[in-house]
Amino acid sequence: MDNLNTLFSEVADALGIESVAIVEKDHYIVELLALLKPLSFNTHQLVFAGGTALAKSGVALNRMSEDVDIKLVPGADFLALSRSGRKASRKAVIQSITDAITATGMFSVDDDQKVTRDEYRYNDIPVRYPQRLAQEPCLRPFIKLELMESDLLESAEVRDIHSLVTEMTKRPHIVQAFPSVTVTSTQAEKLVAMLRRTAAVTRNVERFDDTTLVRHIYDTWCIVNVGNVDIAYSALIDHVFAWNVDQRFAADRSSGGLNFSTAF
């Protein structure tokens, strides 16, 4: 472990990163992805998504993305189940993932802080990782693992995933061929997220500002800056809007009524 800490420090110095804790957390984020990669389910496919996936796709974000977003993409076997069967299936998948994480001895799960909503469609799991270095106030003391059931806008693409350590030292990829959301799909989802969150503030001016909104704005700028804008982008935005409406209305139906004001 001491050798690893030294390596973290050397990589931070080489990259001009002031906090070695950032390199440490990045290392364990990729270790967590390596743990998730071989997991396979009859009902769902695990697909890497969000800002961290974007940062590992060749788009230089120059920011610390400390969440791991995983889409649980439902398959035909799952769609054939009843509502109660789907709920039980989602619960079993989440439990299997949690068990795999805790079985390593490297990670632990903060059960008291877990969040589960909408019949296990959304799951927020705080994953504790080994921390031997002084932590920065800007970093959470855990990896936020978000597991959300969702269809894909485009077929997933496989990516080899480096940590800052392996990229700097030219070591082999820690994770090979992890199914990931495309950059174009990520950009479409981020734009709709910006619109949805700004609309929420417009409806309620007394609402606190969304401090996470700037990440979506910045990430979108980074995508455009490297020229990763695709002609299919506008069509994907339409799909994201439709998916958001379906999800919002589905949640309202399950609670006993429709609330059109929450559609976006």
Please render the helix and strand layout as text.
Blueprint: H1 2-15, H2 20-36, E1 44-49, H3 50-55, E2 67-74, H4 76-79, H5 83-103, E3 108-109, E4 115-117, E5 122-128, E6 143-149, E7 157-161, H6 164-169, E8 175-180, H7 183-203, H8 213-225, H9 233-254
Parallel strand pairs: 2-6
Antiparallel strand pairs: 1-2, 3-5, 4-5, 5-6, 7-8
Helix pairs in contact: 1-2, 7-8, 7-9
Walkthrough of the structure:
Mean pLDDT is 83; it is low at 255-264. The strands form two sheets. Strands 1, 2, 3, 4, 5 and 6 form a six-stranded mixed beta sheet that branches. The protein starts with a helix and ends in a 10-residue tail after the last helix. The radius of gyration is 19 Å and the shape is globular. It is an alpha+beta fold. It has two domains: 1-181, Beta Polymerase, domain 2, CATH 3.30.460; 182-264, no CATH class. It is built from nine helices and eight strands.
The largest sheet, given as strand count, sense and whether it forms a barrel, is: 6 strands, mixed
Which runs of at least 5 residues are low in confidence (pLDDT < 50)?
255-264
Count of discrete domains: 2
Please count the beta strands (DSSP E, at least 2 residues each): 8
Number of helices: 9
Instruction: Give the CA-based shape.
Output: globular
Which topology of the largest domain does CATH recognise?
Answer: Beta Polymerase, domain 2
Radius of gyration: 19 Å
Q: Supply the helix-strand structural class.
A: alpha+beta
CATH class of the largest domain: Alpha Beta
Sketch the topology as an H/E string, one letter per element.
Answer: HHEHEHHEEEEEHEHHH
CATH architecture grouping of the largest domain: 2-Layer Sandwich
Distance between the termini: 47 Å
- Strand fraction equals 15-25%
